[in-house]
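Morning F.,

Quick status update on the modeling queue. The single chain you submitted on Monday has been processed. Sequence for confirmation:
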Amino acid sequence: MRKDFLWGGATSANQYEGGYQEKGRGLSSMDIVPTGGNRQKMIKGHINQLEIKESLHYPTHESVDFFNHYKEDIALFAEMGFTAYRMSISWSRIFPKGDEEKPNQEGLDFYESVFKECQKYKITPIVTISHFDAPLYLVETIGSWKSRKMIDYYLRYCHILFTTYKEYVTHWITFNEINMILHAPYMAAGVLVEENNEKQIKYQAAHYELVASSLATKLAKEINPNNKIGCMFAAGSAYPYSCHPEDVFEALKVDQENYFFADIQVRGKYPSYALKSFEKNGIKIEMTPEDLENIANHTVDFISFSYYNSRCIARKESDAELTEGNLFATAKNPYLELSEWGWPIDPLGLRITLNNIYDRYQKPMIIVENGLGARDNLENEQVHDDYRIDYLSKHLKMMKAAIEEDGVDLFGYTAWSACDIVSASSGEIDKRYGFVYVDAEDNNKRIRKDSFYWYQNVIKTNGKNL
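Structure tokens below.
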């Protein structure tokens, strides 16, 4: 492993921060999505219910209260040995409605305090600008990323971030899991869809995000030439369910859909397979020559991605039993075990995915999410999460092999998640991912899990002890 390899953990503001109405913060797109009930329909953009209802439960409103525990948490990250912390900023904490001329100073001050804590412990912040987050007012008034106006509001937000935090942050990610707009458009981008026109809406919104990403990349370089900008997508190679050529071809098409966004952000143009698919499906994207010029001229510096599982693709859904995995329905792979939530566990799939991405793009990479959601039991102030250690250990061994034996250029790894958070897919706090257990019944008390000490040793030995 390279000596300057970045080790750390990851979180997102809307799942971790809490304080959803403190110090001037406006409502976010995800603040109105409850746990249970209609959550899946809402995050997929099929329910127009843009309000908070007293009868429903919204765990993200308080979450685990990083807003008031950030010093304690970052000290714990430092104790583990983090050299990187991948986090996100709440857009509506900076611009409460999204269309203001001037930002909310209290919001800016909060993140400056967070970055100063990171600086104190020599932790490199890797900051996602939009992580399943948009001001709710922009969803209500212009339809969020359905509108080209969103680009200007996003760039105003970016300009404030790049200038205000110039001395603290040089690693930026424009959008989290940008390909999730195709699977959960409201969660990913605040986009509501109509079923008879769903693909058109998703791909038009995606185009505006891609243009915004390119212009943000340009802006970041102008403000600070040291800035490094990355794309981020939900990765996981697609396997054919069998060696039947039609299964193989269907898996190829799924991989193409998965790589669509990175193909554009890294290579600087729409791939031919996508243009043909638009033509076949009657999708007409409103794009200008200037859009395409910006996409071509302002590509990303690095590729970041999440990896939780591989996917298995059958030519007919009836050919195989289905299971879930990071909001992707997939054929059940008979050779893999499943997590408590039905997600396939495939460590070798991470090595395969790393090779596939690096072979495709030849750009520096970082894994910014990888972890296991599970119900942890707190007993006598201890959490014995051997299952998480086992999961992470096996994945890190495959990551190490991809670097040392296959030659992929990977500069960092941030596990999901640094601390317990609210699950994006289920909205539950009980689906825990972190190295630090948060006891909501005891004033959000932080408790180190067994995996905390295991990961501490992994970092200390730079990946020798896995």
